[in-house]
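Hello support,

Our group uses your service weekly, and this is the first time we've seen a run hang past the timeout. The protein is Molybdenum cofactor guanylyltransferase. I'm not sure whether the cause is the sequence or the server load. Input pasted verbatim:
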Amino acid sequence: MQTGLISGLVLAGGRGSRMGNVDKGLQPFRSSTMVEHVLARLRPQVGPLAISANRNLDTYRAFGAPVLTDEMADFPGPLAGLETGLRHCATPYLLTVPCDSPFLPLDLAARLFAALQEHGADVAYAATHDAGERVQSHPVFCLVRADRLPSLSAYLAAGGRSVEGWLRDVNAVEVVFDDADAFRNINTLDELRGLEQPAFPASLAQVASCINGYDPDALPVRDAQRIIREFVQPVRAVEMVALRASLGRVLARDLVSPINVPAHDNSAMDGYALRGADLPLDGVATFKVVDIVYAGKPSAVVPGPGECVRIMTGGVMPAGCDSVLPQEFADSGDDVAMTVRAGAIRAGDNRRLAGEDLNIGSAALKAGRIIRPSDLGLCASLGFAEIPVQRRLRVAFFSTGDELRSIGEPLGEGCVYDSNRYTIYGMLQRLGCEIIDMGVVRDSPEALEDALRTACENADAIITSGGVSVGAADYTKQVMAHLGDVTFWKVGMRPGRPLAFGRVTSNGRSAFLFGLPGNPVAVMVSFYFFARDALLQMMSANAPLPLLQARSSEAIRKKPGRTEYQRGIITRGADGTPEVRLTGAQGSGILRSMSEANCMVVLHDEQGSVTAGDMVDILPFEGLF
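Update from on-call engineer: The timeout came from a worker crash unrelated to the input. Re-ran successfully.
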């Protein structure tokens, strides 16, 4: 199935009388609204997408899809929305779903389309069948051939109002789904409140049980990453921000183009617009110039045979013209006449088609994208003054240890300045998080529990450094076990073997916890290869680490069985190939080497020693650290 064949329509035209006269689609649900949940599940299944609504139109438009109002005066239920949708449908098929079914199947379009094709039907609609129960039809979940519009219009004109009634007039096929809950519609505020809080995912132990040979004392990097990925949940809160304020934020919904870009066929060159059919097959031809077109100033003149229009780059193509001769390709030309030789251009050359860059209804930017400067310009070109973005992730962090001192405090014997909080601050700042710096927490169970509770009640995630290895003053394990579902791992990696991960709870609030090692280099490596991806997942962001390849300029000793992260300096070799060398000593306490490096050499679990000239994976620091 090609999603581009199907348009999607969310039916949100009801009056919400059973929900305090508030539109069902706009009811708050799990940190967003019901219609946003429906849109999120429907978007991947269809091409163009629209919302059928009859009030609160600006609110619905803010969700990034065109809004269609019923074109029949008496608003005859969902069929009115369906008819309007079919009138505006630019694809062969239209799929409709209601705005109050936030769990609709992710394979709805595919299964309805397959059934419609198999049976040669006009309409395919969903049904469910629970054991011991009769088949329950769900006719508003339907896929309709767009050319069935005359049949529907005739049915409505005759006074018909029932979806089931119209289905009897067309060739319809019923498609039975197993999951009745997927078609559950929420009709009352009590139902809504009962479903508001999703259940927590499986416990860490349940997630870890899916890993073959799981051993918390010898866990490969990829297995630790998988457990974290499957345990972490996104934060679903969305906010609208001014376009300029969206830079660096995570796009919460697809931005659907409300216009064609370009809006009209236009010229890609300064030259002469003409009809391709008038180009000479041999010799030369002379055209009379009948007008001049500038960008932003279209002409009403329609050139006839042997006529052309002088046109500037971006000028709207005159009616009937389909080709542009660049001015430098003309044998001669001015504002009166132009002569062209055969073969100078082909019919259709140098014309930008309307919608060539973006078609109306297509996604200009996809949800999960971190907004870049070029995206600001794209959004401005489409007229978006505000952008829907994910709420900033709130992350609390602190260091643990009696030996740590903050900048400005005197250093006693055996004490060191706390550098980890500053590197963690910088890494979180680069991710665009809302940061809560809780300073240094002393080595006592009471202090650690107080800090974790405070962090948990004020943040979505917590990052600690130090206190996760085995030591006489490391109280982290017992305190975290008391507060939530936390596991301690010895990960097969260097640097950064000890790692704690889980979820802690306090006074009804919960936060995901990342307990990183205390060594300065280990804390940065652990952050970027475990915490970073999890935090981005919580933001619903799509920004994977950019592992590249470079040629090693030296031999690197390594035993298979653990993943190693070596600090490197990448340059360009004599033949132009990227080449990397190590910074020198790789001890996990040598923070200076991280400042000297401009990349990390990643030597994977199964790899052995590297010889000079071998290609290795690298993680460039630019834009990351």
